[in-house]
Amino acid sequence: MALTSNDETDLLIPLFQGSAENPRFSTFLERLRRRTQADYVSLILRMGDGPHAVIVESYAGIDLRKRARESETQGPFDLDRYLYDGLRPGRVYSIGEMIDHDPVARADRNRRMAKLGIGDERVVRIAGGERYSAWLMMARARECTASDSALLSSLAPYVAIAVENLVSMDRERMAARINAMGLERTGKGWMLLDAEARVVAADPALSQFWQEHCGAALRPGERVLGLDLVAERKLAGVAAEMAQDRSLTARPLLLREKPHVEALLMPAEEAAEQALAAPALLALCTLPRALSGDGADRLAEVFDLPRREAELAMALADGHSITEAAERMGLTLETARNYSKRLYAKLGVRGQAELVRLVYESSAVMG
User: 117: Cβ–Cβ under 8 A, 6 or more apart, which residues?
Assistant: First the structure.
């Protein structure tokens, strides 16, 4: 069954827009349910395999999971999961036909489905990608028709594309969130600039810091506000150079003195296709921050130190002298010196410089 132009407008456009909805694909599923006059339509996505697989079910129509709980029975996917895995991608099935050879199992399943108000259902397995599988299912109290099966079969390739795009975007979003979290924990932020030193994009941590401490927003298409004239000219010069020659080595630049913000400027990776304005350089910025209040706890746990010795190590790493650290911690100078000697012995370092380096190479300074 070929999809008509009306189908493309009514079903395919909502399908490809569905990854941005909450719940996902809700418009597509509701329109498919109305089109087929089904009682229930769902798109089941399973990430991974085995007992710890994550199953996400988007649906329109009756809430089968609620009915299953109320009737103390299982829904179709929970009951027949092993059968769903055996379906050939692209072919439309009635799950009942998979157990026709077993009259006892068929009768038991029919009783369970009757409790849910289901008389018949159709399911098609969507061609899955790496580490995921998907199924499109419809069910109703009365029998499904041949046109129902034909429509599901026609939609399956398009649903496969939509699901693959969704999974890819979710993975990219997750990677981006993790990267942003890691940079923020280590006191770094980034922004992409074009050949005229205008902002192409900036990470959320740097954008928030710039708004709060530099009195300006990092807006795409605009120059970096909040710089003095010297820094602005240097940034523009480097951007122009790196737009012309992407083999240039990274260069440091002091963007602001107060608050102190340095940037390491490097040519942006050139992409063959770019939806955004072409970036010329990546500015990786250091953001001023105090050491984490949890740092001493992490240091103590990793190196098996008493809490007070770990606090002293953090104070010394923060640039305080032994006298200043003792005063901050309410210790006598003699006690602080005894702590430091024990620290050097336990950590295998020879003096304060090595101690500071060890602290800054540990997780204690990560946010």
Answer: 39, 62, 67, 141
